TrEMBL record:
It holds the Pfam family NAD_binding_8. This is NAD(P)/FAD-dependent oxidoreductase. Residues 175-379 form the Amine oxidase domain. InterPro entries: Amino_oxidase, FAD/NAD-bd_sf.
Amino acid sequence: MKVSVIGGGLGGLLAGAALSKDHDVHIYEQLEIYGGRFTNLPYKGFQLSTGAFHMIPHGPTGPLASLLRDVGANVDIVKTNPEATFMTKDLKQIPFRDFNELLSAASRSRIPALVMRTVTHKKGNVADMVWNDPEWLAIADSCCGWALSTTAQNTPASEAVAILTTTRKYGTPGVPMGGCKGVVDALADVIESNGGSVSLNSKVDSIMVEDGKAAGVVVGGERISSDIVISNIGHKLTSRLYDGKYLEPKYAGVINKVRPSAGIKIVLAAEEPLVGHPAAMFTPYTQRVNGINEVSHIDPSLAPEGMHLTMSHQTMRTPDVQKEIELGLQDLKNLFPGKKYSVLMVQSYRDDWPVNRISSGFDLGNLTPVRGLFVVGDGAKGKGGIEVEGIALGVRNFLDIFDKAY
């Protein structure tokens, strides 16, 4: 079959690589680089990422690593040690599993009940799940903000339970050698070695639909026929590419209601380690920053010799981007008093370039009202998948649908 893929982000590359062994796959990317929010930007000897944190949530044993192996993408993923830490109020780090040390006796007494809730609680949001207890909320907001760019209040409890189940199954994070670019380069190599292509600076103008079925794409005025079309640009942007008569009212109502998750990343350069290890350090006692990592401990090639690459992340709590950035920068000063570092880059992710096109727990799946038109990526994540793991689970779901239909 001839397959056209709109967008060369991680989801599009994963789907394209999986199908390229047996099908004729062509990916059309409007930017001059592929990878979307999952690749590298070289700057002053550092390998800065366009979005993700050079980290794979479940390391070499998770859904993304498994799918990479299945499609033949050669990526070395090294597990982090420790798995994660928390920064306490007095600026000391404790192991993630010792989170009870952050709690008062009263809040600590709720641990057995919360353990049960992490298995059975499916109603409301994460804030409800932790009884809106301020001490528990600080921890929950830090974890939700770092992993999902959401708050405890706007994260469904059912999704949190699914994520915890997935984490128990697959384990803790890892760092892909070469950073995000190491992953997407390997996928592009698979596609091209199988006879497919990844075309850059190639914006898809529209999706051709005949008798309710996707018939191809129009790129730069050229009509390119295909048997199926896969979109990696989310449900809303995809719907703008085909005739509105195929946009079912119910579906249109849903895609107009869903909201992306927005976040801010601040990238630091330092000669001495700020975090001191490659894993995530959660920061529950800040104004904005939810967590920080320092992956150059595992892959020194991500920073110049003798330097460290440190990245913080925070969910956006207000639309005032400049104010949110200022609060994040102040948090970093408070977290690392007396430490010498410089700010390499500040990135905001929102609107049509968000952290997730649809916030975790509200994903719309792979199907569209048009037969033969599918969506993959961060608007079609699999349930219980954190960020890129969710993208991989969503691509797995798509592949199951594809196998049954074709």
